[in-house]
Amino acid sequence: MTGRAGRKGESDTGESILICRTNERNQAKLLTLSDIPPVKSCLVGKLQNKSTVRMERAVLEVIGSGLVSNIHEVMVYIQYSFLHAQLSSETTSSQRRRRSSNHELKLLDDIVHTCVEWLVNNEFIYLQQCEEKGQSMSKKVMATQFGRASLYSSLPT
């Protein structure tokens, strides 16, 4: 069995061609007619269990690369992620969306703080208190030498 999908800019109809042998016909039908599973963010495994291994890596990457300098900026970055869009789209009515928006932000805030806490406890990053404010949002986050080494070597966190 072999196939070819249309290429961006070359076709605007989204056609695909699938060539198969007679004995592969049922498999081809199953492939083309089955429901497509929903696309889900891979940043967290199970939100209920707060499995955050990939999120920890994403947070380490934005801190280690210098894209963010405090926890608030980490939250802003995560709000532009597919995970945030996925959580936002799981509600349908505008009233439920307004109520759940706070829930989603609280959930993401909890996940980010769990990740930051884990990264600090395992010495991948450290928090430096800013003098102008005493809140956690004003703490500067920086990667440790170990965190940068893990990041640059692509070793798992």
From TrEMBL:
One GO molecular-function entry: hydrolase activity
Pfam families, alphabetized: HTH_61 (PF20470)
Cited InterPro entries: Hel308_SKI2-like (IPR050474), HTH_61 (IPR046931), P-loop_NTPase (IPR027417), WH-like_DNA-bd_sf (IPR036388), WH_DNA-bd_sf (IPR036390)
Catalysed reactions, as listed in the record: ATP + H2O = ADP + phosphate + H(+)
Domain DNA polymerase theta-like helix-turn-helix: 14-125
Domain of life: Eukaryota
Alphabetically ordered keywords of this record: ATP-binding, Helicase, Hydrolase, Nucleotide-binding
The protein's name in its UniProt record: DNA polymerase theta-like helix-turn-helix domain-containing protein
